[in-house]
Design goal:
By secondary structure, the protein is of the alpha+beta class. The protein is built from two helices and seven strands. It is globular and about 45 Å long. It starts with a strand and ends with a strand. The relative contact order is 0.25.
Length: 112
């Protein structure tokens, strides 16, 4: 597991975001797709659409355009080309944003 600072550039839904990752030494990795680890959020299509929009909008309010801290899992991307990570607010890393989504009922725990 590695820890990085990143700036959130896009929130597709409540479990998929895009970030620019600060690698240190003024080096950045831009446009990195991240899957929030350990959760499953409602889909943006189909019967879950209304709940998906609610979950996505909450996450956008919390992190879009902001600096976060992320802790990655595994050393490769998943089947959809996304890195798995837990997200934390840059100013406080006590509770993961992933867990907040579950606690608020905006996502379910997922085990994979």
């Amino acid at each position: 597991m590695f820890t990085y600072r990143a700036t959130v550039t896009s929130v597709y839904d409540a479990d998929t975001i895009t970030v620019d990752v600060d690698l240190g030494f003024r080096a950045w990795l831009r446009g990195v797709k991240i899957r929030l680890y350990g959760i499953d959020a409602p889909e943006m299509r189909g019967s879950e659409r209304a709940e998906g929009i609610k979950s996505r909008d909450w996450l956008r309010e919390q992190i879009l355009g902001r600096e976060i801290v992320m802790r990655t899992y595994h050393d490769k991307t998943g089947k959809y080309g996304r890195w798995l990570a837990s997200l934390y607010r840059a100013e406080s890393d006590e509770t993961s944003i992933n867990q907040e989504l579950v606690t608020l009922g905006l996502a379910r725990p997922a085990f994979y």
